[in-house]
Amino acid sequence: xxxxxxxxxxxxxxxxxxxxxxxxxxxxxxxxxxxxxxxxxxxxxxxxxxxxxxxxxxxxxxxxxxxxxxxxxxxxxxxxxxxxxxxxxxxxxxxxxxxxxxxxxxxxxxxxxxxxxxxxxxxxxxxxxxxxxxxxxxxxxxxxxxxxxxxxxxxxxxxxxxxxx
Amino acid sequence: xxxxxxxxxxxxxxxxxxxxxxxxxxxxxxxxxxxxxxxxxxxxxxxxxxxxxxxxxxxxxxxxxxxxxxxxxxxxxxxxxxxxxxxxxxxxxxxxxxxxxxxxxxxxxxxxxxxxxxxxxxxxxxxxxxxxxxxxxxxxxxxxxxxxxxxxxxxxxxxxxxxxxxxxxxxxxxxxxxxxxxxxxxxxxxxxxxxxxxxxxxxxxxxxxxxxxxxxxxxxxxxxxxxxxxxxxxxxxxxxxxxxxxxxxxxxxxxxxxxxxxxxxxxxxxxxxxxxxxxxxxxxxxxxxxxxxxxxxxxxxxxxxxxxxxxxxxxxxxxxxxxxxxxxxxxxxxxxxxxxxxxxxxxxxxxxxxxxxxxxxxxxxxxxxxxxxxxxxxxxxxxxxxxxxxxxxxxxxxxxxxxxxxxxxxxxxxxxxxxxxxxxxxxxxxxxxxxxxxxxxxxxxxxxxxxxxxxxxxxxxxxxxxxxxxxxxxxxxxxxxxxxxxxxxxxxxxxxxxxxxxxxxxxxxxxxxxxxxxxxxxxxxxxxxxxxxxxxxxxxxxxxxxxxxxxxxxxxxx
Lengths: 165, 558
Known about the structure:
Chain A is of the alpha/beta class. Chain A is 27% helix and 22% strand.
């Protein structure tokens, strides 16, 4: 089974893309939004994930957020930074708590920033390994900006540090 | 300059470590050329015509003496003894070797410098008025704002892969010396009687292929909301900016396509989620940064011209010319700001040798408080020079070819490195700049012409800011030959874009064309107080076009 990184651990990838032919089988299923909308009423056992592109409007996902365990954001090219904004919006504005997984063009050199934007799952692209992705995480001991990993900016930590708080 | 604390220092060192590992993997064949490219660009490294080019950030154009000495050391050790100061207040080395770049970055980190985000589709080095903090006409010192933006933008996780590059400029003075109108975001500091410090926020300016002046998105943004508002603008751009065509990917295209009204609504809606949140600035942070900006210990000096200076001015006309041309008023009585022209006749515009850099670092300590500024006009500035020290400084500058009295004049040419170095260029800039220096070698005539901004770009990317030159020259490729398109009437502030006067010219025709236009100007101007660019504004381009393209006809006098 393919390996992915979730919450900084290497785990087997249990998620399978939904296809209408195999709709009976249980297990963790990844649906496109319109697929999920179509089969939602008669869905069976197993966890549900949504497969979205980087230009997905998060507002359209809002009704389904409580029921999906995973949102896989498909990054076609790692230089497409829209997924970073989508990750932050899902976490910080929509309050989504499930897994947000980067799939597609995901390499060691991009996961650090994705993680800071709320991604906690990473599926390496062909030729890349989960081991390498792990090496790419947590490269910096501090950060100036607010983001999902640090909801307060550095200047507030500097302040509380100085005042002994 | 802002002095790092241990966290700033650690972050810049961690950045070097990351790039060292990426370079190692690239050289070992573990990271492909295509994959490495965005990461080397985000660390300032281009692959050019002859060798890689490294662009080092000089945040808001402020350097300490020890930093300038380190830049000189890098030029000597890792380049061919020269650095090129750019129109974005940075420095470029044109002959570095890729395997040495991590060491160069480590050497920079030792003096609290970096090459972070000097290229790539991310937030670039923030630029400002080169007289920030020392200008007589300053409302607000923009350096604090610039440092806040430097920290906010450095390694911003969400905006590492924007649709295109992103440039922010801040101005705090009455005169806009930061060209805020032609940046992706231009911030003009405003002091409001009721609400205190804030910014007028302009978005969507820029040069390049589709030059535009930015639109005002917010008349007044209270200073405490700076970072959340910037986040909101960048998020709207990151999500909706075009990614299918790099020539249509800048934020200016998005603002135009959306209309500024809709863009403003999107930003304001987005902002509501973050406004008043933890990233809202607190006074303590502003005070902390202020305290870390080294403040000169000015002496109480008499305001007038000291007697020895007056005597020198009286009997030394060369000195007097330099005094009139290359100084800028200082906010503290008895002090002035001295512009060291990097535009001597034999010098490529903006180039400084390692020896010159070392000498300038020494003078900054002897005559000032150990600080140097880089101007977007590609000159260096010694701020904080006591008026009484001017004769000694001038005598020191002359043998180094750093006292050419041409600041603000025709021969203070702005030029990108052009086709001699840059892989993007359509034409060379430097030989043309040299030909123009030779053509306009008569300094008295150049002074008679008065203020002219002459800007040369070797291609549409407009690094030489030709659109906002009073005279702009753009290199174009015509069937494999270098040609030059001339525009006139541009200005950096208030930003105005020049108009093309006619078909492009062969390189050997350009100097005569400029001479013809300038002679026409001498006949047409109302009086010597009317600048070339004002005459163009009054009369339009026609008389100048006729002067160039119908050279045998007399120019009609007004």
